[in-house]
Amino acid sequence: MTHGMRTDTHTSRFDDGGGWRDTATRYALLPLRIFLGVTFIYAGLDKLTDSAFMKDAGPGSIGDMMSAVRDSSAIPALVDLSLKSPAGFGYAIAFGELAVGIGTLLGLLARLAALGGALISLSLWLTVSWASDPYYYGNDLAYLMAWIPLILAGAPLLSLDAALRSRRRQRSGGYR
């Protein structure tokens, strides 16, 4: 006999038996994902809608900014590459930020989106914010570090990746 023993195994969606700490642990990366996704979408849209930014030269242009940081960057050759077509580089960065932000926010190809975000942040750190003194004044290094947990973990909850994974599991009989 099993008096006083629960035999049901049903748990609620937000509590798999571990309590609030386990729930908080499972959702710990969600605020970071939302912040980085929204920030990168905003950054991409801000660049695309700024008429001065997407010019080869002039006040506030990508060309002038890259020319200004060329001698103080860690990799001047990367800046030289961008200066061959500043507007093209600006569009590449802006559309890259949009793709990364949307992928991160929706959790679609989340690890790939996070890797893209890390590469954008790395390239901006090595070029635009490299000369920040002290180094922690340049935000690109902090963004680079923020992408690493999302590269490692992906978007296991509240994401299109999780929904697609669940759908594949259901089609294969639940053994994935």
Write the layout of secondary structure elements.
Layout: H1 19-26, H2 30-49, H3 62-69, H4 76-83, H5 86-106, H6 110-127, H7 139-153, H8 160-171
Helix pairs in contact: 2-5, 3-4, 5-6, 6-7
Your description of this structure?
This protein has helices spanning 19-26, 30-49, 62-69, 76-83, 86-106, 110-127, 139-153, 160-171. The model is unreliable at 5-12 (pLDDT under 50). The chain has eight helices and no strands. Helix 3 packs antiparallel against helix 4 and helix 5 (86-106) packs antiparallel against helix 6. It is elongated, with a radius of gyration of 22 Å. The protein is an all-alpha fold.
Summarize the structure.
With 176 residues, this protein is an all-alpha fold. Helices cover 62% and strands 0% of the residues. It contains eight helices and no strands.
Tally of individual helices: 8
Helix content: 55-70%
How widely separated are the two ends?
A: 36 Å
Helix/strand-derived class?
mainly alpha
| Secondary-structure element series | HHHHHHHH
How large is the share of residues in beta strands? under 5%
Keywords:
176 residues, 62% helix
